[in-house]
Amino acid sequence: MEWNFQTAEKLAAALRAGEVTSAELTDEAIARIERDDKAINAICVPDFDRARAAARGTDRARARGEDRPLLGIPVTVKESYNMAGLPTTWGMPPQANFMPAEDAVQVSRLKAAGAVVLGKTNVPVGLQDIQSFNEIYGTTNNPWDHGRTSGGSSGGSAAALASGFGALSIGSDLAGSLRTPAHFCGIYAHKPTLGLVATRGMVAPPAPPMPVDLDLAVVGPMARTARDLTLLLDVMAGPDPLTHGVAYDVTLPPARHERLGDFRVLVLEEHPLIPTGSAVRAGVNRVAEALADGGARVERHTPLLPDLAEAGTLYTQLLVSGSVARFPIDAYEQLQTRAAGLSADDQSLDAARLRAMVFSHRDWIEVNNRRELHRHGWRQLFTEFDAVVCPITPTPAFPHDHNPNPLERRIDIDGVEYPYFDQLVWAGLATMPGLPATAIPAGRSPEGLPVGVQLIGPMLEDRTPLRLAELLEQKIGGFQAPK
């Protein structure tokens, strides 16, 4: 049997039944990587010797009667996670030789659950792009079209899963970095509720791995099925044992419903700050039709929806102000001069980005207060709805664009060009208020590229969008391997 594209759930069952060993699964995965990854370049740091040793160890553990959630299952890990014995660079050439002393908390949880780590997957420089390329490890290609990006910043993980390189992966998401690669590569990913999953050890080198509560950013699971996302989230969820974990345990509430027909869903396909391309619009509508056909209550409008234009601006301001907070003082002063030259009438996202680069603490507090109002608005919306279906980005995967100045890049939406980073507003819809969001495959573009959508759920009710994703997978199908 060919195991590389089997789900983690099926691999776990086969391992328990003695139909295959972890050593065999690991050897088969490594053989596939060695055969196919030259064209994809997803696995930037192989760890095959240790993987084989770990696989043999899990087989011995199973023979002793042990059984853990991921025992013997081959997985990959985003390069940005610390792993003792392997470099962590975040694609930054000055950190090419940085070697962390200990595993990130999520790598430790993977290993404790019995997973076999095949290696680390490629990322963009500093995790700050919608593509995955850097001078150290090169460019990761989309498995469906090597001339296009696999997405970023978890693009290596998404490409690895689409190519059959391991059954699961872990990534991170600040600006759609789990969801966008899933959308571009035709797989599943889940952005957890902010703070649900400990992030220690997923830190830019050479910074120490401190248990910091991040704003906006999360870490989360990637897989080829919705059920596998839930399996991996259960391994990852929970506070850091150095902080809240001293006193708190996590018990996520069950999904609000088990049947598709019981869900109340708001469908969004238009954003006031950027158009939705025809291929993505078709994907959203395909999901909406499946929901309606399954008996779900589907609405297209509600007065409870927070203002999307303000949400996009607030997200941009919070994202950018945090990203540039450590800029050198001379660069900061130059940005102040540029921001002062903006017209008061300029309310574009480009202007919002520039102003946010020089925010005062007072400015940030005011934006954060506006965010709290949006969070309250979402709480009210989720009294009437169980989930929101909407795009992840306006287009399928776009051609590689390595212009060194990303502000000069453009995204083509049905023949019209828009600023490259404006496409982030859809990802920011869930990120700004800290809501959970599950990315699912929703069909193919006319060119045959994957198209995904996201299912946004209520805060800390992560099982609700995950269950809806599972039901939709049964209704419209899910992952398909690239031909």
UniProtKB/TrEMBL annotation:
Query: Which top-rank group of organisms is this from?
Result: Bacteria
Catalytic activity, EC: 3.5.1.4
Q: Which residues form the Amidase domain?
A: 24-464
Record keywords, A-Z: Hydrolase
**InterPro entries per UniProt:** Amidase_CS, Amidase_dom, AS_sf, FAAH2
PANTHER family per the UniProt record, alphabetical? FATTY-ACID AMIDE HYDROLASE, FATTY-ACID AMIDE HYDROLASE 2
Quote the protein name from its UniProt record: Amidase
Q: What is the organism field in this record?
A: Streptomyces coffeae
